[in-house]
């Protein structure tokens, strides 16, 4: 499987949830990365020959040292001219403090209110940061989908 489709990079991202809150990563404020200084999902680029689920599992182990027991597909988002996002979801079955933050500058569980307002406070950094726009849209879509199920 190629990691690129019509010049867009294929990525896999995870919606991990616990007690109606969603795990998010505060991305470092480095200009040459996607969504610098924004809350986003854990995940990343697929490697050559890697399926979206394999890539998602690898990224979660690399970024937070966590392997969810079940990882279910949600949607594939193709509107972005830069990325094709394969979105997965799973419950976060461990306590937040047991996760190893190996990428980004903070992690935390975003509430529905924070998701709707589009920003979240970082305890580690001492200020609020915006949610990446596509990340907010994907979360709102997921929440609406779950309410309808």
Q: Secondary-structure map with pairings?
A:
Elements: E1 4-5, E2 8-18, E3 21-26, E4 39-40, E5 42-45, H1 52-64, E6 72-77, E7 83-91, E8 106-110, H2 112-117, E9 119-122, E10 127-130, H3 133-148
CATH architecture: Alpha-Beta Complex
- State the separation between the terminal residues, measured CA to CA: 32 Å
Class of secondary structure makeup? alpha+beta
Mean pLDDT: 92
C-alpha Rg (nearest Å): 14 Å
Helix content: 10-25%
**CATH-level-4 superfamily name:** Nucleoside Triphosphate Pyrophosphohydrolase
The helix/strand order is EEEEEHEEEHEEH
Biggest beta-sheet profile: 8 strands, mixed
CATH-assigned fold name? Nucleoside Triphosphate Pyrophosphohydrolase
The total of helices stands at 3
Give the DSSP E fraction (strand runs of 2 or more residues): 35-45%
How would you sum up the global shape? globular
Under CATH at level 1, the class stands as Alpha Beta
How many domain regions?
A: 1
Poorly predicted runs are 1-5
Q: How many strands?
A: 10
Label this structure with key terms.
3 helices, Nucleoside Triphosphate Pyrophosphohydrolase, 10 strands, single chain, alpha+beta, globular, disordered N terminus, two-stranded antiparallel ribbon, eight-stranded mixed sheet, 149 residues
């Amino acid at each position: 499987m190629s990691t690129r489709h019509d010049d867009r990079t294929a990525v896999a991202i995870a919606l991990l949830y616990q007690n109606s809150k969603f795990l998010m990563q505060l991305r470092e404020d480095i200009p040459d990365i996607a969504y610098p200084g924004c809350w986003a999902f854990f995940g990343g680029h697929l490697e050559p020959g890697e399926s979206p689920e394999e890539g998602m599992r690898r990224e979660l182990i690399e970024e937070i040292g966590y392997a969810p027991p079940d990882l279910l597909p949600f949607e594939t988002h193709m509107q972005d001219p830069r990325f094709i996002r394969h979105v997965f979801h799973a419950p976060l079955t461990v306590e937040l403090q047991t996760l190893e933050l190996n990428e980004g500058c903070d992690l935390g569980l975003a509430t529905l209110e924070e998701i709707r307002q589009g920003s979240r406070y970082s305890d580690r950094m001492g200020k609020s940061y915006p949610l990446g726009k596509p990340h907010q849209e994907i979360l709102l879509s997921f929440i609406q989908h779950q309410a309808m199920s």
